[in-house]
Amino acid sequence: MNLLYININIDPNIGTFGPFQITWHGVFTAVGIAVAVILVAYFARRRNLLEDDIYNIALWAVPGGIVGARLLYVIEHFDTFKNDIGSVFSVNEGGISIYGGIIGGALVGFAYARWKHLAIRRISDAAALGLSVGLAVGRIGDFINGEHWAKATSLPWGFCYTNPNTLNGDPHTNTAAICGSISQHPLNPPAVHPVAGVYEPLTLLVIFGVLWYLYRRLNVAGYVFWVFVLLYALMRFAYSPLRLNETKADGVSVPQIIALGTVVFAIAALFVVRRMAQRDPEHSGVMEPPRPQAAQAAALRQRARPS
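and the corresponding structure tokens:
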């Protein structure tokens, strides 16, 4: 028996609005998106970029992320949808992939920035900082509803979900019960690792700290973004073995396979970005706008030069 655990007895459903079910997961997903966009605009402003450009990109990138999140989830769980294709569009019933959301949003945002001839690499660095915090905020919904089934644990920070509407434990049962056993018996659900609700958001905040450190000290535009992609992929690869509801391919979960491919791609991208900065140092910089004193000193030096 695991007598030390954290009991979570919160109804993940807030209520209904017409035909839609309002859930804490949906609310915090929306809050996380808003936080991400606001932070991206803030960090972009620190790099002398226009906030309006960021909000315009967001108008395209956010819907692209939603489509990407749903599309990758459907691909991963195609057996669930193949007999009812119409359910693919039932987004209100849940089922998204954060990986797909990042990929979809990044592709659409990149396409828009390219179309408008914006500073893609500098914008992507700001986007990495906003995304890391926004994703952490969005995971609060997972903290409440426990939808990502995780392995049992006897550790004192194991979570025990006892609300009858919680999507935790055996996917074929949904029974509230006294928690505490490591057994997977549906009438006595175990305390589980809080992977999505605690481990991932805390790691994302650590990633934010690393990115913020690099953002302030590096002069290579685009580098911070690919560091984020690399660290996020490593995080997902590390935590995937603790999840129980991920699609497997030859014993390896699909998110782990995607993570490995992403790691290789991100490392290659880091080398490319550095080469781009060496060839084009004038337009690769991400330094802060010059301080007034420095700008004044530069102007004086310019006037002092002989004509």
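(Above: one complete record from the training split.) Residues 51-76 form the longest helix (26 residues).
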